[in-house]
Specification:
heterodimer, A: about 120 residues, alpha/beta, 5-stranded parallel sheet, globular, B: about 160 residues, alpha+beta
Amino acid sequence: MRKLKVLIVDDSSVMRKIIERSLRQAGLDLTEVLEASNGAEGLAAVQTGLDMIFSDINMPVMDGLEFLKNLASVDAAKGVPVVMITTEGSEARVVEALSAGAKGYLRKPFTPEQVKERVAPLLGV
Amino acid sequence: MTPMTKQSPRAGVAFDPAWRSLLECAAIEVFQMMAGAQLSLEANPPAEPGGEVTAMVGLAGALCGMVTLRCSRPASATFASKMLGGDAASNPSMARDAMGELCNMVAGNFKAKISSLADYCMLSVPTVIFGEDYAFTPMHPHDEITLCLNFDGEPIWVMLVAHS
């Protein structure tokens, strides 16, 4: 299986760990996991070679939607699929994220199987 | 997590006693999916909620109030371990944060099941309290739902307080 480098942006360190754990439980081979606790830190953490970015929507300093919009002007993020993760049941925010360029979303709670279902097609694995 | 800042205001949604089954379902789903823990409704709950760890998430918007999750320290450590891996059980801050996240997800999953709340009710960042010697007293008229769930013989309390 392809080795993957991902960025996880979430203001909860526990949730970052849960997302990483779920990706591994889903069978993805993560070689490097970069973390950021808000959108601004996420923009600074973007580097070449990323295979996927996961971002919470609701975060302090810079939320996930703002992060997504700013990401469009970051060369290293070009073509990197972004999956939004949210606790909200809000359709409107999901639609807004998809319109702003997100390739998919996961709503908490989620199982590793659901993570795989959403993520694998985007990674081609 | 969700700061209470974003959605446009909407008329308040009236409390509905039928939310009890939705809250139960929301909590059971969260524990099952995120912690691999099978909870069920406790047939003979203690008279009063107890447990040294209480997580709280505020609700604002179409529904104002709070969702709380309460259990013993060992139970919270078990959930942390199931969510984050073995060593989380011996790390109090991870157990604390895991409880906060569980409460956040129960509140989010609950409101997602009610179409009139999903887009119009915001969640606060979770707060976690340690200790049992406190009284919980909402300052406004309110309705509440208190559920006692069972996890391996341990009571797990889930409460919704909705301001009228």
